Structure formats: C-alpha cells, structure tokens
Amino acid sequence: MTPRTKPGSKADRDALRHEMAAAGCAVGEIAIEMRARYRMRAREAWRHAHGWTLQETADRINDLGARRPGEAVAADASLAAKWEKWPGPSTRRPTLAVLLLMAAAFGCSVEDILDLEDRRALPESDLRILRHAAAPTTGAEQPATAPVPPAPEPTGEALVRTAADESAAWAQWAEASNVGDIALEQLLADTRALASDYLTGNPAALFLRTRAMRDRIFALLEGRQYPGQSADLYVAAGYLCGLLAWMSSDLGHLREADTHGRTGWLCAELAGHDGLRAWISSTRSKIALWDDRLRDAVNHARRGATYSAGGTVGLLLACQEADAWSMLGATEEAQSALVRAVGAREAVSGVDEIGGLFSCPPSRADNYAAAVHLRIGQPGAALQETESALALLAAQPVRAYGTEAQIHISRATAFVGCGEPEAATEAIVPVLAMPPEHRMDPVMRRVRELSACMARSSAAASGATVQARRMLEDWCLDSAPRMLALSPGDAGPCLDL
Q1: Which of 253, 255, 262 minimizes the C-alpha distance to 204?
Q2: Mean pLDDT to the nearest integer, 160-167
Q3: Closest to 493 (Cα-Cα) out of 482, 198, 253
Q4: CA 383 from chain center: how many Å?
C-alpha cells in the first residue's frame, strides 16, 4: 500500500504541481490552486507553483536586478521569506521595485502576487502607482474632465488618525531594505576572497571580478537599506575601491589608481570606519610613492597611523613611511620609521578585517626593511632582512608572488652591494622564472633599480653582470602592464579590461 503524503507537505505540493502540469495547466492556474488548497499567500503560491526554494527565488530576483540599471538587490533565502510572508510579524515589506522583479521572475503581473491583505498594508502612494501602471491605454483622445478639487484637510479626531497613518506609512517605507544580513555577510566574504586571491592569482581576471563586485555594491547603495546596512555596504565598497586602486597601480596606471583611492576614502568617511581609513591611507601612500610624490607618500602613511585600527595596518604604514623617506634620501627619518615599525610589529593585536592584500605579515615587513636598508647604504643589513623574509615566507600558507619577487630582487641587490656579483646572478633566478602575467609594475621598477645598481658596481664589465643585465632587460619586455597595453593588432596577447 502506497503511503499517503501529508497534506501541504513538499511531496504533496510537488505531486499537485506535476499532476496539473501534465494536465496542461499553466503556472498561474497551479498558483491559484495552491492558494485555494493550502491557504497560501500569493507570492508563496507562485513560488511553489514553479517548484522553487526560497534561495532559488532570491537568486532569480538578484539576477534580474543585476541586469536592470539601478534595480540591483542582494536577496537571500531569509529576505525572500520575509517578503513572501509580509504583512505579518517579523516580515519586511517588499518595495515596488522588488515586487516588479519578483513578478518578472514568476512570469506574472504584480497584481497576481498581491492579495487583499497586501493592498490594505501598502501605502496609498504605491497603490496609486500600481493602478496607474495597470490602467489600459488607447490611442483615442480621452474626453476632458473637470479638475478634481483637493480633499479638505481633516480636522479633530480625523486629523489625529491621518497623522498616525502617515507616520505608519513612512515607517513601512523606512523599514524596507534591498539587502539582507546574510547577503551582507556574503558580500564581505567575497571581498575577503578577492583580497586573498590577488596575492597569487591572475591580476587581469581578478580586476574584472573586483570591478563587477564594486558595481553591484554601488547599485545596492542607490537603493534603500537600514543605516547600519548602508555603513557595511560603504565599508565593502571602500575596500573594493582600495583593491582596484592597488591593482591599477600595479598595472602602471597611477592616475586611475589615485581616483579609486579617493573614492575609497569617501566610502571610509561615509561609513565612519577607522580601519578602512587606515588601509586606504596605506593604499594611497603606495600610489604616491610610485608616482614620485614622495612627500605625499609620507603624509598618507602618517595620516593612516593616526587612526585606531587593529590588525597589521599600523606596521605596514610605518614600513611605507620608511620606504618613502629612504627614496627621499632622508636616512635619519627612514631609520626612525623603521624603529616605529619594529614597535608596531610587537604591538599587533587582533586580526585584519579583510586580510590578504590588506594585511602585513612579518615577511612583507622584512621586505620593506630590506629595501630601506639598501637605499640608505646598508647592504649587509638588507641581506639579513631578506634571509629572514624568505624563511618567514616559506612558512606562510599563502605566498604572495609580488612580495616574494621583491625579496629576491633586494637579495640580489644586497649581494651586488657586498661585492658578490655571482651570488647576485643566482639570486635573481626565481624572479626570471615568473610568468609574464605576474610581472607587475612595482616589481619591474625594482628590477630596473637592480640593473642600474649592477651597472654602477665594480663588476659592471664582467661577463656574468653583463649577461644578468641583458636577461633583466628581456624580462621587462614581457610583463603584465605591457600585455594589457597591447592593442589587438600588436603581436602578443591582449587583455581587455
């Protein structure tokens, strides 16, 4: 004997849907039967008529919104359930934009997913828009009608009730949100993943992913959400702008990088987030350094250090200040900043909010210290820093190829300074083996600095040094910035961002 399914259970609903579909019933007819048989609300009935889960419904709404300018939402199963059960306890009123997206996903009109209870709870302004949208239009000219006189202002008890109704309507408007808490968590998790992937992944592909994520959050911010949710969206947008700034500068586009940096700073200000302020300051310091605005690089690093932010950003900012002072030839200031970096390293507390690119592990700090020691004429100290950095890097679960390359370059430069050209040639072998898509602009600049150092050394005329400089020159000709700059008619690959 076949066991009977429980009325209203998923198995029962699926059986009804399959039976009606087999009989040639349309989805709308199935939804009507679902409502009548199981006493469902309209939106829930349409979802079950399609056989979708709440998450599948949310995904379809998100996809439709992403294809419509200014209508992006970030729904999840929890938010879809609240929209579905509204009006009721612990629910959330769907905006007109959400209702239109939901209707489009179900393949019906907005009127089909609204019942009498919905219409009683909707603000009069929304109902007027819906009535206007549903009104039939013809090409015939409509007869002129006398203007309707405005309704008289209520008085007495009617005035009090009207004022209360207006407050309730505004509260329903203010309560609506186009993003759920789970969706916010996912957006921040995706931002963390991008910041981590950039340390080891293909920069061109990650640029596209980061840009798409930023655009999605910008679209959400054009909608409506609770103030705390808006702040979280601004934080995510700020970090993504910081990533785009860092990526753009790595590809040699410093002006564009600075634009992303300024937008990231605006997001930090709008969110009132000190951690983001500090990391954007670090990003802008890096951009200014490679743009030869060395005083700006110092100022950005010092500005970032004024914010109370946990994690490792204080360590990175001190390293960046030392880096900028060393390029200015200010030995005393550079050494003082290195001392502060040591103190910041010992005082690190908590974890970095995003991590990945927005973190400063000890190997990254040692890399900065090595470069500073080289510029202030201390190759022996630089060599010790590179040995420490490589040992620390080997123990890390994720090895950033850009940091690792710069450590090897500093090591080779230190060997040149110590009068060991053969060791310098051997030290650059890992750098020469880097794939072209990983050869970013800062690494290329460091390679050119190494080549210039070799040309000034006492072994400049030796065969080993000449051969090494020729290999470095060839290496720079095949790099990520050069690949991205090639037009389709040029020889070699072209990556269109």
Answers
A1: 253
A2: 74
A3: 482
A4: 37
- Mean pLDDT across the chain, nearest whole number? 86
Query: For the whole model, what pTM was predicted?
Result: 0.72
Whole-angstrom distance, CA of residue 43 vs CA of residue 47: 6
Cα 473 from chain centroid (whole Å): 36
Q: Does residue 200 come out as left (phi exceeding 0), alpha (psi in the -120 to 50 range) or beta?
A: alpha
Cα 288 to its chain centre, rounded Å, is 22
| CA–centroid distance for 39 within its chain | 42
**Is pLDDT at 142 greater than 50 in this prediction?**
no
The three-state (H, E, C) secondary structure of 73-108, written as one string: CECCHHHHHHHHHCCCCCCCCCCHHHHHHHHHHHCC
- Residue 179: strand, helix, or coil: strand
Residue in 231, 209, 211, 208 with CA at minimum distance from that of residue 221: 231
Domain ranges for the chain: 10-128, 179-311
- CA nearest to 469, candidates 482, 479, 478, 459: 459
Which amino acid makes up residue 473?
A: E
Tokens 């910035």 correspond to 481
| CATH architecture group of domain 179-311 | Alpha Horseshoe (1.25)
Calculate the CA dihedral of residues 26, 30, 36, 38 and round it to 10 degrees: -170
* 449 three-class SS: helix
Task: Write the DSSP symbol of residue 376.
Answer: T
Tell me which long-range contacts 254-260 makes (C-beta under 8 A, separation of at least 24).
254/287, 254/290, 254/291, 257/287, 258/284, 258/287, 258/288, 258/291
**Binning pLDDT at 50, 70 and 90, where does residue 238 land?**
very high
Measured CA to CA in angstroms, residue 147 lies from 98, 150, 154, 402 at distances of 34, 9, 21, 72
Cα 48 from chain centre: 34
Q: For residues 211 and 216, give the distance between their C-alpha atoms in angstroms, rounded to a whole number.
A: 9
The stretches of 176-226 forming alpha helices (DSSP H) are 181-197, 203-221
pLDDT above 90 covers a percentage of the chain that reads 54
